[in-house]
């Protein structure tokens, strides 16, 4: 199966190459036979991409899905043309000289395209900064450091320029990734979600090329945000037994981030997230000029998180959000999500235990305060007091908000 996947991957790249060449010839000459060639090769490429999606690595499936969707869009475009164009003009460029993301993707090397497309998050505007519970200081800092420079670049001229590197640090499960995605959506920016751990494990050896392509693509399709989750996997303090490929990748990332600072007019910002900021190398720390602490949610925020994670489910009068917020001190947002899922499942379990789970006429009872009490008895906070103390100590020394 591995050989079949590799063969299909190679065929897909070759068919895409021939399809693009025919498409360009059609645009330049208007010859109907070139249009038919382009349709033929795009269909062949789609078949190969579908095989790779179904039989290739799970990690790449999202990238193949996006590629198939782009091929379908190109096929629809070709089939809709009733007559060939007389002349061809380059598509309009975005403000600042940037080009649309789908056009910029066409210049990515074929062997990296599925991986790169897998980093691009589309349709992520499910929440805005205003809708995130609590974290007012962090949201205000992100609006100033990220949103304003991207949506009002006219305000940042001369000696006034925005930040190019932002580090979100704090205990796990407190919303760092959610904040990054929300500010990208609020800024109408392209969002590249890069797994630092995979760059230094699964793609070791290819990671350098992937990182370069992501930065190039982000600049070409700006405004863009490049988000490195678990950035400590790359930016960790250097050690003597570090793999050469990891050292080269660190050098490339530092060069790319320094390049963003030297090209202040570019609307590209790097956001890193980490649960262990004290492990980050000092050279990387300097490049993350804005360092924002994302703490555990306070009591008002916890109350809102409970409401968010019980939305649409019937609750009885014994569920008191103020009380839940009070007794959940020390729990992260992710912990509260787990508490809610556990409590909301209790009525379903009762139906199962009563032998009514397969009866479509049986309905679960409303969730009660006792269900939440039982959930708290089972689920304890995932963040220790020692971890919180370490974050506070590091924040006191290095945060920049």
Keywords:
17 helices, Methane Monooxygenase Hydroxylase, Chain G, domain 1, 56% helix, Rossmann fold, 3 domains, 6-stranded mixed sheet, single chain, 401 residues, 7% strand, alpha/beta, Helicase, Ruva Protein, domain 3
If you had to describe this structure to a student in words, what would you say it looks like?
Residues 83-97 have low confidence and may be disordered. By secondary structure, the chain is an alpha/beta fold. It is built from 17 helices and six strands. It has a six-stranded mixed β-sheet with strand order 1-3-4-5-2-6, sandwiched between helices. It has three domains: 2-89, Up-down Bundle (Methane Monooxygenase Hydroxylase, Chain G, domain 1); 120-295, P-loop containing nucleotide triphosphate hydrolases (Rossmann fold); 299-382, Helicase, Ruva Protein, domain 3, CATH 1.10.8.60. It has helices spanning 2-29, 32-55, 61-80, 101-105, 110-119, 136-151, 176-186, 196-199, 207-220, 232-235, 244-262, 282-287, 299-308, 321-327, 333-353, 369-378, 385-398; strands at 120-121, 165-169, 190-195, 224-229, 268-274, 290-293.
């Amino acid at each position: 199966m591995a050989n079949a996947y590799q063969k299909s991957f190679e065929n897909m790249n070759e068919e895409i190459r021939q399809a693009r060449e025919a498409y360009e010839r059609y645009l330049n000459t208007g010859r109907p036979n070139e249009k038919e060639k382009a349709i033929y090769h795009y269909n062949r490429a789609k078949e190969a991409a579908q095989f790779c999606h179904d039989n290739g690595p799970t990690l790449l499936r999202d990238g193949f899905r996006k590629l198939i969707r782009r091929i379908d869009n190109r096929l629809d475009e070709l089939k809709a043309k009733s007559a060939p164009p007389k002349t061809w003009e380059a598509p309009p460029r975005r403000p600042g000289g940037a080009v649309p993301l789908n056009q910029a993707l066409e210049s990515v090397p074929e062997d990296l395209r599925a991986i790169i497309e897998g980093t691009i998050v589309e349709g992520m505007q499910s929440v805005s900064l205003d809708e995130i519970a609590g974290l007012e200081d962090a949201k205000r800092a992100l609006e100033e450091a990220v949103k304003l420079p991207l949506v009002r670049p006219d305000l940042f001229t001369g000696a006034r320029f925005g930040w190019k590197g932002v580090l979100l640090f704090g205990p796990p499960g407190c919303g760092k990734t959610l904040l990054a995605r929300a500010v990208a959506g609020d800024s109408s920016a392209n969002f590249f979600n890069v797994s630092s751990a995979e760059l230094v494990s699964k793609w070791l050896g290819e990671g350098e090329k992937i990182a370069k392509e992501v930065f190039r693509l982000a600049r070409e399709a700006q405004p863009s945000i490049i988000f490195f989750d678990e950035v400590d996997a790359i930016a960790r303090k250097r050690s003597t037994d570090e793999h050469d490929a990891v050292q080269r990748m660190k050098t490339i990332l530092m060069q790319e981030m320094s390049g963003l600072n030297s090209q202040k007019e570019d609307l590209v910002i790097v956001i890193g997230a980490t649960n262990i900021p004290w492990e980050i190398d000092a050279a990387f720390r300097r490049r993350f000029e804005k360092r924002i602490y994302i703490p555990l949610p306070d009591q008002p925020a916890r109350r809102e998180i409970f409401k968010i994670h019980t939305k649409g489910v019937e609750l009885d009068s014994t569920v008191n959000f103020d009380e839940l917020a009070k007794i959940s001190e020390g729990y992260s947002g992710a912990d509260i999500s787990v508490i809610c899922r556990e409590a909301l499942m209790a009525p379903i379990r009762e139906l199962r235990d009563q032998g009514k789970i397969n009866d479509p006429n049986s309905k679960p009872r409303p969730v009660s305060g006792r269900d939440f009490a039982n959930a708290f008895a089972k689920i304890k906070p995932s963040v220790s007091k020692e971890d919180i103390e370490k974050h506070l100590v590091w924040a006191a020394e290095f945060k920049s908000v």
